[in-house]
Design a protein that fits this description.
This protein has 2 domains: 171 residues, Rossmann fold (3-Layer(aba) Sandwich), CATH 3.40.50; 153 residues, Cytidine Deaminase, domain 2 (3-Layer(aba) Sandwich), CATH 3.40.140.80. It contains 12 helices and 13 strands.
Length: 341
C-alpha cells in the first residue's frame, strides 16, 4: 500500500475515533501525515465526488472528515430542518467541501443538486426525525408520489424508496459506515466493568423484545428492569425512550421491593438491517441520558452499532460504573428465537 494511502487510512481512523479533534489535524500525533492530508483538504483528490445527505447530530461531520481524509470531494445536501449550521463553517475551511441547503420535502432538488455536481455515489449520515412525516413540510411532486405509493411509512420503507429513486437517477446510495468502520462496536465487554448476573438476565430478556420490535421497524431500543420491559423506543428516539423509563421509575413510591430497579438498555440493529441508513448509533449523550435515568448497563450489537466519541464515552461510563457490552449477531439471533441461555 503506498505511503500516502497508509497515511490517509491511519489518519481517518484517528479522526473518527477521537471526535473532539474532528475538525483539525494534530501534527504532534501524526506529524508525518499532516502535510499529505492538508494537501487533500486544499483541493487534491483521490476519488470520485461523494454526496452526503446530512441529518442532525455529529454523524455527518465525522463522516465528512473521514471521507475528506480519504481524498474524496464531498457535496453536502444539508437538510434545513435538521443539519447543524456548523456545516457552512466546515465548508468555508475546506475547498473540497460544498454545501447546498435543502428542505426535507425537496427530493427533486436533491437529485438535481447531485447530478449537476457530478455525484454518482451518496451516503446518508445523521438522524432525520421520523416524526417529520407529520410536519407541515410540503413534499415536492416526486416525494409526494413516493409517499402515496408506500404500503406503510416505516423508516425502512421510506428510506428504501428514496434509495430506489436515487438509483434510478444514477446515484448509488452506499453504506453509511463505509468510511467509519473503526467506529463500529466490537464483540465483548467494552468497559472496565462487565454486566453482572442481574444485568445479563435483563439483556437476555431485552434482546428478545428488542429484536421483535426492530423486526417491525418500530424502534431499535428497549429499556428493562428486573426482566420487565419499562420502555420501548418508537419515533421519539433512543435517548428519549431512556428518559421516559427513568421518569417512570421515579414515580414508584417507597423503597425498592425485592425486584431491582436498575435499568438496562438494549439496542439492536434490525433483523435485515440496511447499512445504508438508520444504523444504530450510541454517543456521549446516550451515556449522560442513562446516568440521569439510573441505567447501569448498555448492550449493543457488535459490528452494526456506531460508537461516537468512543474515548470520552467509555471514560464517562467508567466514572459512573456503567457496563457496556457488544454482542455478536449469532447470540442475538439465538435470543430472538428463545434458544439462548
Amino acid at each position: 500500500m503506498p505511503a500516502v494511502t497508509c497515511a490517509i487510512v491511519r489518519l481517518s481512523i484517528q479522526v473518527v475515533l477521537y471526535g473532539s479533534r474532528t475538525h483539525a489535524i494534530d501534527p504532534v500525533v501524526e506529524p508525518q501525515f499532516a502535510a499529505a492530508v492538508r494537501g487533500m483538504t486544499s483541493g487534491a483528490q483521490l476519488g470520485p465526488k461523494l454526496g452526503l445527505i446530512a441529518g442532525n447530530g455529529r454523524f455527518p461531520f465525522l463522516l465528512l472528515d473521514a471521507a475528506r481524509a480519504e481524498g474524496r470531494q464531498v457535496v453536502v445536501a444539508a437538510i434545513r430542518e435538521e443539519t447543524d449550521a456548523e456545516m457552512d463553517r466546515r465548508a468555508a475551511q475546506d475547498s473540497g467541501v460544498t454545501v447546498h441547503w435543502l428542505s426535507l420535502g425537496e427530493l427533486s432538488r436533491l437529485i438535481e443538486t447531485f447530478q449537476r455536481a457530478g455525484v454518482r455515489q451518496a451516503v446518508m449520515a445523521g438522524q432525520v426525525k421520523h416524526k417529520q412525516i407529520f410536519s407541515s413540510i410540503r413534499p415536492d411532486w416526486r416525494l409526494a408520489k413516493l409517499l402515496l405509493s408506500l404500503r406503510t411509512r416505516s423508516t425502512d420503507m421510506l428510506l428504501g424508496a428514496v434509495a430506489k429513486v436515487l438509483s434510478d437517477e444514477g446515484i448509488e446510495l452506499i453504506s453509511s459506515t463505509a468510511f467509519l468502520e473503526p467506529l463500529l462496536a466490537e464483540e465483548g465487554v467494552l468497559t472496565e466493568r462487565a454486566p453482572d448476573e442481574e444485568e445479563r438476565r435483563n439483556i437476555d430478556y431485552g434482546l428478545k423484545v428488542a429484536r421483535a420490535v426492530a423486526g417491525f421497524d418500530i424502534g431499535q431500543t428497549v429499556v428493562v428492569a428486573a426482566q420487565a420491559c419499562v420502555a420501548v423506543e418508537a419515533m421519539e428516539g433512543t435517548d428519549e425512550a431512556i428518559e421516559r423509563a427513568g421518569r417512570l421509575m421515579e414515580t414508584i413510591e417507597g423503597e425498592a421491593s425485592t425486584l431491582e430497579r436498575r435499568l438496562t438498555v438494549v439496542k439492536v440493529a434490525k433483523p435485515n438491517q440496511d447499512m445504508r441508513f438508520d444504523v444504530p448509533v450510541v454517543g456521549i449523550r446516550t451515556i449522560e441520558t442513562m446516568i440521569r435515568a439510573g441505567a447501569s448497563c448498555l448492550s449493543v450489537e457488535a459490528g452494526r452499532t456506531l460508537l461516537f466519541d468512543r474515548a470520552a464515552l467509555l471514560e464517562r461510563a467508567r466514572q459512573k460504573g456503567i457496563a457496556m457490552i457488544g454482542l455478536p449477531r449469532a447470540e442475538l439471533k439465538n435470543q430472538a428465537t428463545g434458544s439462548g441461555t
